Structures are given as C-alpha cells and as structure tokens.
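Example 3.2
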Amino acid sequence: MAAARRLKRVVASQPGFLNFKSSSESLSGRRKRVNKNKKKSWNKHSDINDVEEFLEDVRLQERTTGGLLAEKSDDSLFFLDVGQPKRAERKAAEPIEGKKRKGKTPRPLRIDLILQQDSLIPAPKDVLAYQQPNAKKLRRISQKAEQLAAKGVVTRRQKRLLSRRPVTKEAKKSDTEANNNPNRDYYDIWGQEQSTVKDSAEDWYLQQTGKKRVKRPEKLSDRPSVLPAVEVIAPGGSYNPDFFSHQALLKEAHEVEVKKQKEEDKLERQLAVNKDDTATEETVIREQVEGLVEEEEEEEEDEEEAAHDEEDEDAEGGSSLAKKKTERQRKREKADKIKELRRLDSKRQMDHRQQLFQLRSIKASIKQQEQSTEDKQKIRKANQEAEKSQPRRLGKLKFQAQDLEVQLSDELAGSLRQLKPEGSVLKDRFKSLQKRNLIEPRERAKFKRRHKLKYVEKRAFRAIT
C-alpha cells in the first residue's frame, strides 16, 4: 500500500502530467470528509457548478431562440444559402418612389441596438396591474345585485338614482350657428360652463364624487389678535430721543412700577396679623379653666326645656280638637273661595281692557327696550373689538407684560458707538407670541436634582493638604 502511494507521488511530480484533482487531494491521496447534516455545511461543501452551468445553458437557449434547441424543428434552426442576389433582382426589389440612395445601406445606431430587447422571453405578467382594491367585496356586491335583479327587487340606491331628475343642458347659439356668421354671439373659451353644470347638479352628488369641496369655516380665517408681529417702540426709546418723548416714556415706566408696588403693599396688608386677634393673658386663663366648673346649671336648663316641651304638646292637642269645623262653615268657605276666583277673573279681564288704552305707552316701552338692546349690542361689539388687541387666558397662567426697556437721562448715549445693547431678541419674540394669543404663557421649568451631589476629595489633593 505504501509502495503504491509512493508510485503515485512520483508520477504526479513528472512534467506534462495532467492532474484532474486539486493539489491537496493529490498529495493527501484521499477525499476530505465533511459533515453535511446541516444546511450551512451542505451549502458550503456541496459542488453545484454542473447544475448552475446546465441552468445557464437553458436560460441562454430560451433568450436566443425562445425555447430549448432540442424542441425546435430543423426549419426554424437552419436555412438554405443560395448566395447573393443578382443586381437586376436587387433593382427590382428597391422602391420606385423617392430618390435612390447610393452607398451602403443605413444601419441602426448603436444606442438604439442597446435599447432594443434582445431576449425572446416575454416580460413577466404584472400581477399588481391586474389587481383591484376590494375586489372580493365588489365581486360579492355584484353577485348580490345580480341575485336581486333576477328576483325583480330594486335596491334603495337604484330607486334614488331613478327618482333623480335628469339635468337638461341647453345648447348655446355659438355651438349651433355657423362660424362665418358675423352676427353670432361671442364665444368665450374660458367661460364658466363647467361651473354652471356643477351648480345645476345636486349637492349630494358633487360631495360624493369629490367635485365639491367642503366649505371652510369663516372662523378659521380670523386672526387671534389684531396686534402686529413686530411692535414699534415709543419715540422715547430711541438712542437719542426728544426730551418730551423721553419724559413720557419715563412716566409710563414709573406708573408700571407704582402699580407693582401697590399690589405688593396690598398683599402684605392682607397677610399681616391683626393685633385684636392675638391671644392675651385673660383669654389664655379662660381657655385653661374651661370645663372645670360644675355642670349643675346645664342640668337645670335641660329640665326646664323638657317641661316647656310637654306644655306645648298639651296645648296643640287641645287646639286640634277645637279646630274641627261644622258643615255650615265648610259651605261658607267654599262660597268665599268661588267668590275670590270670580273676582280675580274679572280683574284679569279688566286689565286686558285697560291695555287697549295703553298702546302708546306699550309701544314706547318696546321702543325703549329695543334701543337699550341695540346700545348693549354696540357696547358688546366694542368690547369684543377691544379684546382682540388684549392677550386672552389660554392656560393656567396669566400673561405678564415684559418690562419696559428705558434708560435714565444720565444713561443716554450720544451716538450708536456708545450705545450698550439691552434686552434679548429671543425673549422679545417669545413674549410677542404670547401677547398675540399664538401660544399660552409659560414658566421656565424648575430643575430639580434627582440625587444629591456627593463631594469626594481626590487622593492627589489629600496628599497636598
């Protein structure tokens, strides 16, 4: 066995020897054994080159000939070569009309040849192009409609369509008259013919077909505030303002500060402790002695109240016996009641008669009520117009106006170079959005640390100290 292996190695080392196996297999002398019990190892160690070559050959035959060569007939694969046609036959085959073209026959461009389809396999059928949304539902509806039609039943939708009145379109004179008539009416190609047809149709049909848009509410076009996006500051806020305008701006800022101070003083007065409500030594002693005195007085008061209650019950029992009425008294009360009803009825009729003579005063009172109602409507409308320029309450917080950016007389700069920037553009825009009712007033979120900070002294710092 060892001699045979040695002989194979010697023969393989000779020049001109064709090795049909890999070098590793020829040297080892045996085929490598691998496990193919799993899909991954099977795909890795399986040789499918012969299968792929066969399938590629089949695809090539289908692209070039439209099928397998073995299934084709000989007439479709071969043709009879009879040589080049003669000159006279070529001239007879050329068309007579038009000029004769000399030289070579025209050939298609290379770009056209690239774009042409070179495969005889038909394109795959587009399944999505033949699919219809809700096809199963529509098929079921059509089958049900056919069954009802076979039974002679008319659905509600068909009854509604049949009862609908057809739209009659009148023909225009410009459509019927001849074009060479100079007295014909002017025809406008941009006319409103389509809109008239839409108006004549039913609203329900236009809404269902999507030709009529939903009416936009008028309230959506209203602005939440009439204030401009960028408000111009007062003339006193300029870097070099006039004296009177600057004083007017200072007065306005002073009034704002005075108002704030008054609110703070009012709050302090409300929270202040009243001296009359404070405890004294007398009140403290009275509270401490409370409950230590004997309760004999209270027991005597309870006995007196019980005696009074018994006397009241006896008096009520005697009065109930005394209130029993006779039959004559009942008849008299009934007659008095009927007499009172008749008197009220006659008084009501008399009031109706008196109102006929009060028509002028009634008209005057009605006119006065209408005038007062009209005045109230005007006042309400004026208040609504005034509220459009005021910030509304959109959230839980109330709008607070931004502080006036004003400089004192000694802080004014003489030129733009010496002017110091104040305020914030971002804050100004944020307040403007709140003032115009575009966003609700907000507060800055308070940062609350989840864990306490822990200070640790480092080893290097500890060594120095």
